């Protein structure tokens, strides 16, 4: 393991982003409120997109907040230490983001009415997106060649662990009233319909104009131009923007431009094996 990473309860984390005490705090001390909303994702599955959607939904489509305040302050990561400042504020709802696996999530969540929106993405597209992100982010070690990275991804030897374990862990909540499964592919296919579904889940009613504004302001085009949404504001200390933009392509199926036919077959084989006892059909399974 490189010095840049440490292991906590079987999962790798970046020492540049957080420490063991932050993970212990989230798991054992963080007090979940019933009105909390958690945006949960495996990395590169549409986290920022959901941050933007939640911010816009809770401002009834008014983009002022999104244009003035960075996304990581609007819908902060619970595992990142700066969150303690936000916890002091007794907002209702409090909006949070996390990449944590279910096994590392707050104990105080059990039995609460807090809501989780889990956004999943075709793991092949998340892989490609992560490969490019790892080149520009200090939170990941250099990904090496694509074939090397593919192997690591499939073995789960990465920050936040395995895609397979992550999704299977969180999907155990499927069917609970406070859990909504969303996919990147659904957002792509029908953003407006997805926003309506998310609003219903959150108990938020938006009129047609507010809905139009959410859809417009959470589009790839608008977010790419909004530097407080697209992490261009993050200093060079954390990202090398020249290597790859954060909002890179914003499409589904880019994996076809990266995986060779044998790599894709190998991926399918591992996917089938790891998901064999899992009966849910995702958009990418069709
Ligand atoms: P690509 O690298 O495939 O372009 P995360 O926020 O979880 O890190 O995910 C980042 C991925 O979501 C990137 O994928 C990014 O372009 C995509 N994304 C973010 N906002 C988006 C939007 N409004 N529309 C489409 N894709 C978006």
UniProtKB/TrEMBL annotation:
Its main location: cytoplasm. InterPro entries: P-loop_NTPase, Sulfotransferase_dom. One of its GO terms (cellular component) is cytoplasm. Its EC number is 2.8.2.-. Pfam families: Sulfotransfer_1. Keywords: Cytoplasm, Transferase. One of its GO terms (molecular function) is sulfotransferase activity. One of its GO terms (biological process) is sulfation. Residues 36-278 form the Sulfotransferase domain. It is found in: Cytoplasm. It comes from the Eukaryota. PANTHER family: SULFOTRANSFERASE SULT. Belongs to the sulfotransferase 1 family. This is Sulfotransferase. The gene is LOC100498051.
